[in-house]
Amino acid sequence: MLCVLLLFIGCNRGNNLTFEPNSVVDKACSDCPEIELIIPRAMNKTKLARKINTTLEEELINLLVFDEEIAASSLTEAVNSFKNGFQEMKARYPDESEIWEAKIKGELIYESKNILTFVINSYLFTGGAHGYTNRTYLNFDKRKGNELEIWELFDEKERFEHFAEIKFRIQEGIAQDDPINSTGFMFENDAFYLPENIGFTKDGLVLLYNQYEVASYADGVIELTIPFNEVENYLSRRIKP
After folding, report:
1. Are 204 and 240 spatial neighbours (Cβ–Cβ below 8 Å)?
2. Residue 149 burial class via C-beta count within 10 angstroms: exposed 0-12, middle 13-18, buried 19 and up
């Protein structure tokens, strides 16, 4: 039985946003997958609050929808899509004993006077040798109430990309004049590029490549954290911490 738990927690942060954890829990059984979801939900009736709620829910929907040909417009529909996918698999392969899993947690991890950063950590298992883990950073402009694209984080994205490559090579032990893939990475066209996921944490700006993006599954997540004092000259003026 699907159980939706709404637990109110007041939490005033800078611009007086108040969040509650929105949880969906569905225990595993012989005919159903195990589902554990929890994301913060802004309680305020502001543009920023609406944008945060919509964006976080859309991320969960994209992760859970099993049949891409069937659109899901709500989290409930996405959960049902995931459950239907499991049931279809069981009907096709009745001797299959593996239970599907979807474990997703979102949380607010950073706030300054200008931005908010959320992270969504997910683990999905739909059969096979192993599951798939993924981490997504979402950055929001508090004043404009919009989600920030990666290019909006920097005054000159190309200049930051060059700096980030230097830092990446140092961290990974790649000589500055060697091909970026010389130690086993799999950057397309053997050229460094920024990841799709960049976010702010208390330790600085995080550049994160999920599994398979630039390395093998066995290499796991590739993460580079650049301290604020090293990155601040590259950041867009309106989002500096």
Report:
1. no
2. exposed
Q: Tell me if 26 sits within 8 A of 79, measured CB to CB.
A: yes
CA dihedral of 27, 29, 32, 38, whole degrees rounded to 10: 10
Tokens describing residue 192: 């460094």
Domains detected in the chain: 3-147 (3.30.565.40), 150-239 (3.90.640.20)
pLDDT at 15: 58
Q: What are phi and psi of 200, to 5 degrees?
A: -100, 140
Residue tagged 């659109």 (tokens): 71
Q: From CA 144, how far away is CA 58, in angstroms rounded?
A: 20
Containing 82, the helix (H) or strand (E) segment is helix 75-92
Confidence of residue 108 (pLDDT cuts 50, 70, 90): very high
187 contacts 181 by C-beta, under 8 angstroms: yes
pTM value is 0.88
| pLDDT-based confidence at residue 7 (cuts at 50, 70, 90) | very low
What does each C-alpha distance from 74 to 19, 60, 136 come to in angstroms? 20, 9, 19
The first and second tokens of residue 8, run together, are: 């109110």
DSSP 44-62: S-SHHHHHHHHHHHHHHHH
